[in-house]
What does this fold into?
Amino acid sequence: MTDQPSPDQTTCPCGSGQDYGTCCQPYHLGEPAASPETLMRSRYSAFVLGLTDYLLTSWHTSTRPDTLNLQQSPDWASLQILGSSQKGRAGMVHFRALYRAGSGWGYLEEHSEFVREQDRWFYVAGDTREGPLKPGRNEPCPCGSGRKYKTCCLKVG
It folds into this structure.
């Protein structure tokens, strides 16, 4: 017997604060996402967990690549949803994902487009920008610990 939680009882990577088993895992196992934001969160979790098949199947066929290699994917740290909307079959999510970049941090910010077909949301495309992140000493640590940067990763790095 082990004291380790099962993977479905760990905190979901999407930042919802819920257990993975009740948050993004059902979507990874085939349940349709209820909104563009839900799909975006599940896709972020899939990037963190390396679930290439899910990423491809949740990508609209009009823009989906033939293959997806996550070997060079950054070490994702956290997701921030900055805005989301849906109207009819169209949806939009504005998010910022933070990642470790060597001894520092970087961000990927995107305005993503989604479409709903046959009761399923699909990622279509996004307008992205990316760059280094320079958190202040007294700002929350990008790692998601809830502590100030100066007492968390700045101290370590």
Notes: The longest helix spans residues 36-49. The chain has four helices and four strands. The radius of gyration is 16 Å.
